[in-house]
UniProtKB/TrEMBL annotation:
<dbReference type="InterPro" id="IPR052171">
    <property type="entry name" value="NHEJ_LigD"/>
</dbReference>
<dbReference type="GO" id="GO:0003910">
    <property type="term" value="F:DNA ligase (ATP) activity"/>
</dbReference>
<dbReference type="InterPro" id="IPR033649">
    <property type="entry name" value="MtLigD_Pol-like"/>
</dbReference>
<protein>
    <submittedName>
        <fullName>Non-homologous end-joining DNA ligase</fullName>
        <ecNumber>6.5.1.1</ecNumber>
    </submittedName>
</protein>
<dbReference type="Pfam" id="PF21686">
    <property type="entry name" value="LigD_Prim-Pol"/>
</dbReference>
<feature type="domain" description="DNA ligase D polymerase">
    <location>
        <begin position="28"/>
        <end position="280"/>
    </location>
</feature>
<dbReference type="InterPro" id="IPR014145">
    <property type="entry name" value="LigD_pol_dom"/>
</dbReference>
<keyword id="KW-0436">Ligase</keyword>
Amino acid sequence: MTPITEVEGRRLALSNLDKVIHPATGTTKGEILHYYATVADVLLPHLRGRPLSFLRYPDGPDGQVFFTKNPPPGTPDWVSTVPVPRTDDPGARQVMVEDLPSLMWAANLVVEFHTPQWLADTPAVADRLVFDLDPGAPATVVDCCRVALWLRERLAADGLDAYAKTSGAKGLHLYAAVEPMPSDEVSAYAKHLAQEAEAELPKLVVHRMAKALRPGKVFVDHSQNAAAKTTAAPYTLRAREQPAVSAPVTWEEVEACGSPGQLVFLLGDMAARVQRYGDLLAPLYSKSAEDSSGARSGRRRSQEG
């Protein structure tokens, strides 16, 4: 029998809680749900206001892994969805995770959470910039840290504060909040900075995606600033053998990184990190996201009443 639980007044069917999802550590689905409940306070602000895409891995990373933007079959009517501009589907809608019940419903599907750099109320108008620093072997996250430090200084020269998190895979993600502007303008700026990084650090950086160019270098992926692209959200688990988290890190940790293992964080590490640091990415919160989320919640409560 599938357990039924109540979360903030919403009834949820939570299935297969003893199923092992991450084989290297024996991490079960129940432990994954507990993790998301534990980090909800720091995760939810990064999801609110943004249409979500899911990378689903219900049978673990070695099973079927697939990316979906459409609301999954059986999505409860109390889970928010919003229309999104998509050339392949003019009537497309995507899920919004705005509260703990929605988060636990989505986590029960076993997903990575991915967000665009824009809010649902202002499609294709970015309020933040992102770089995905991806090392090509034998380069590692240690090399990504060197590139991140250079980009931090370059962004600072333009008046932008940079914040870092692990990708939860091999590299780093670098964010900066920007004044809302069309995504194509942010994309052009990010590409320009990636080209500058390659010119300044030619033995370390490549800005083009071609795999033949990448061995031993860090690919500064600027493409995730495009309106149609998404990035793994802060605090999401990744579909990896171990339950690795895309974890915010301090600049002191970036500066001190001397081996890849120093910037690997698993779900069991996060409660202590959140207690120690709070949310290191809190400055990225968009007031407009909070305001629009509140307006949508008010509309839903009015409709339900």
